[in-house]
Amino acid sequence: MTMKEVRTRFAPSPSGFLHVGGARTALFNYLYAKATGGKFLLRVEDTDRDRSTEASFQIILESLKWLGMDWDEGPGVGGPNGPYTQSERLPIYQEHTDRLIKENKAYRCFCTPEELENKKKQAESMGIPYLYDGKCSNLSEAEIQEKLSAKQAYTVRFRIPNKIVIVDDIIQGKVKFESKLIGDFIIVKSDGFPSYNYAVVIDDALMSITHVIRGVGHLSNTPRQILIGEAFGFPIPQFAHVSEIVGADGKKLSKRAGATSVLAFRDLGYLPETMRNYMALLGWTSPDGREFLPDEELCKLFDIARCSKSPATFDVFKKLKEEEKESVDFNKLDANGLAEYLNPKSKLNWMSNKLIRDIPIARLGKEMVPFLQESKIPNEYKSGEHPKLLEILDKVRVYLDRLLQAPPYIEEFFLEDIQFENEEAKNLVLEGNGKLVAKGFYEVIKNANAVSADDFSAAFKTVGEKTGEKGKTLFMPIRSITTGKSHGLELPILFSLLGKEQLVKRMDKLATQLQIDL
Q1: At which positions is ATP bound (predicted)?
Q2: What amino acid positions are annotated as catalytic residues?
Q3: Domains in the chain, ordered, with CATH?
Q4: Concatenated DSSP letters for 339-403?
Q5: Is residue 325 a known part of a binding site?
């Protein structure tokens, strides 16, 4: 028997940016389709006219493209099952609604919003869940026509059959729902647009979706969707509800717990394959337990059945202090602002550093271009292709968790007007044996033919032997008198790239600022 082609979909609502939770859902659908040789579809669910915007739609497309999740069918690509935007599919929904009404599986409800709200409040006051009481479920044809002639506004409700709905979920297992606890729910709103739970069923069926992979928060919607699918006689897709993502505080992601735009990670300087690798491990594990997985392996190994029920921890941001919880909104911070709240020991940083160290230097140079434009390096190096820039980048990349960190390191090699960054850096020379170490290093370098990193390491050893200093009391005064800083790149690497002549000029200038002789 021929296996049916796996068809998955990501169906965002264009009412905001694409955050990590949504991006992970898209990724799981994408990876499962690739792993099974199937198709990945993109569908835009824009039937909420009050919240959907074109700007949000474009941001979602930009986010998916940056992440490298190309869809096989959908906006901009087309396909045999379009249109792929719900607002363009209204005649399709109307046709199906007419069928349900004709078959007495749905009915028009003329209850006003005020009337329904009062019933809801009454139920709340009695401490019971609100369910529609079915007032309009048995109107006669004459009553319906009278109300239609009077142009009374109405919604369309699905007539719930009395049964137990079993969701056989790939991840969550078997979950039972009693339909009588759902009540007749609205499938078409008074503005003529379908509800989410209605349109999604029709679209999934007509687009031959075989697997619905989404967040566990949608599990409660599933019985409604199964009942609608059964009413039409549609094949019911397999469901897989992936675990919730929580922040460092163990709580659901929010604007103060990491639910920021995926594009913010692009602006921070993470590479797209790093984000894909990191997000793939939010609730899924590879068969052999490996964590650093290139794309081609992810696309072979991913199996939705290996996903965990347990919440996945998004460890990219530090846990906020109590005084920060009300004032910090990650959605309003730019890349530099977000960087202050990053967890330096996150799995994302580990993965990012490994990839930055491993990719071809020419590729890294191209990726650096957006981050070089506002830097202080000369313009001829900002194309990301200059041999000297690539040489420097190759030396400093071991220090990088993300590309936004690179410009300050690179600028170090092009500084003309060198200054001490603060009093702490000055005192590294002025206090203790700092002057003696600085003078000793100056004399060794002026008289040596130091070129390589090993040459400069040998110079440090010589100065240490002459001054009796080692460790911090040796290296920190040397760093200060050559860079004006108290921290930075590994000195032998920095010096081998700067060269002896530039080093001597720097030391002369900084010694003048300290009013000391070398």
Answers
A1: 255
A2: 255
A3: 7-85+245-313 (3.40.50.620), 89-242 (3.40.50.620), 423-514 (1.10.10.350)
A4: HTTB-TT-HHHHHHHHHHHHS-HHHHHHHHHHHHTTSSS-GGGTTS--HHHHHHHHHHGGG-SSG
A5: no
